[in-house]
Design brief:
This protein has 11 helices and 19 strands. The protein has about 475 residues and is an alpha+beta fold. It has a 6-stranded antiparallel beta sheet with strand order 3-2-1-4-5-6. The protein has a 5-stranded mixed beta barrel with strand order 7-12-13-15-19. Strands 10-9-8-11 form a 4-stranded antiparallel beta sheet, covered by helices on one side. β12 (about 375-385) and β13 form a beta hairpin. α1 crosses α2 and α4 runs parallel beside α5.
Length: about 475
Amino acid sequence: MNESTEIELAGQVVELVRRLGGSGAQAEAVVTRADLALTRFANSAIHQNVSESTVGVRLRLHVDGRTAAGSGSVVTADGLRALVERTLTAARLCPPDPGWPGLAPPVPVPDAPPVDEATAHAEPDERADRVRAFVAAAGDLTTAGYCRTSHRSSAFANSAGHTAYGSSVEAAMDGIARRDGADGVARRCADRLADLDGAELGAHAAAKARAAADPVELPPGRYEVVFEPAAVADLLQNLSWYGFNGKRYAERQSFAEPGVAQFDQQVTVVDDPLGASGLPFDAEGTGRRALTLVDAGTTRAVAHDRRTAADAGAESTGHAIAGGATWGPMARNLRLAGAVAGPASPVGRSTTGTAAGAVVDTDTAALVAGMRRGLLVTDLWYTRVLDPKSLVVTGLTRNGVWLVEDGTVVRAVRDLRFTESYPRALGPGAVLALGARPVRQPDRVDGTWWTAPSVRLASWHFTGGASG
């Protein structure tokens, strides 16, 4: 399947809706081809290599004042007709939809970034090479994880005459190294498989696992923290889904107050789907562009699709997703930027043998060096929102926590549970420093990523041990 075929299929679906639903029916169709490949390893050996190539059709239509959506994977004439017929049937059973915003007009969308063909057509051996390097760099430690590549191409058409096409690629690696029950982790996401260095990631994961030996218990309380990029990615994800979401904002379930200095002035948050290899349009065919959500600490915007934009008297920001009527628009490619940290300190600046290697990059080392007493946190896990309005979240640390005293990592700490308001923790005066080099972190959802540096925060509320 190629670009012209995908565009033709999307057009056929729209034409079928017109023929079967009448001239007043409005429809939008997206045809997506996805080539996904995954090389997974455990016990320091590859145990699975899988790939799939699928074609999916997503249809949303509005007829007689009612809206319904459907999807399918059979792209024959009979399959497309069946999709349209069952979606029309569903529409007749739906309640009236007075908030229907209409279809995206036929306007040009931005040019998509060029995709790396070598990544789009990567062979299993190329992923296996990175796994081999990861395992070798970890030495005698047990390792597990994956290396994946994906290539997507999508065509959009609606009955207003709007069409669009784009493609994207992604490469990601996520692995752990384990020693005596202690895990170290390393993750990276990139537009090119060639940019993933399995040896570097394996060495980082192994250094952290070795440094996590013999952890001690710490009492609950508020601690200064340095979060590494993997932990900061969780902050960005929750800020996006529960805060910078136009539907939640309209329902007054979001902390966001555009025009108000809600964050530290060092914080700037931008959703930048085209800063990497992302699709140039959203689920409604609206062009995607960079959107500044926070500028030097001041909240500037929330993400909108056509429905939430119509309610707010605004314009869509290109953040519609499938199922957006339920979940709302999502900014899924956030980048945290800010002031550059001070001069980098030596990596692994520890005088205690068991904690040597806890710090694996110069940015984090610079932040740790300025801490009198606090915690270095690698990752956050199993985070759940307790109060959407203030975005109070509870969760656990994971894959390594260390006590820092006078700028030195002194020893490993057992995992801790926390309960914290993410906006408060990033609020005015709360961000002590940001690293200079953001690192792109993969999400479980292909095409979603979070780009963040290490961050030093004045206070984080730990409520007890991981089992508490």
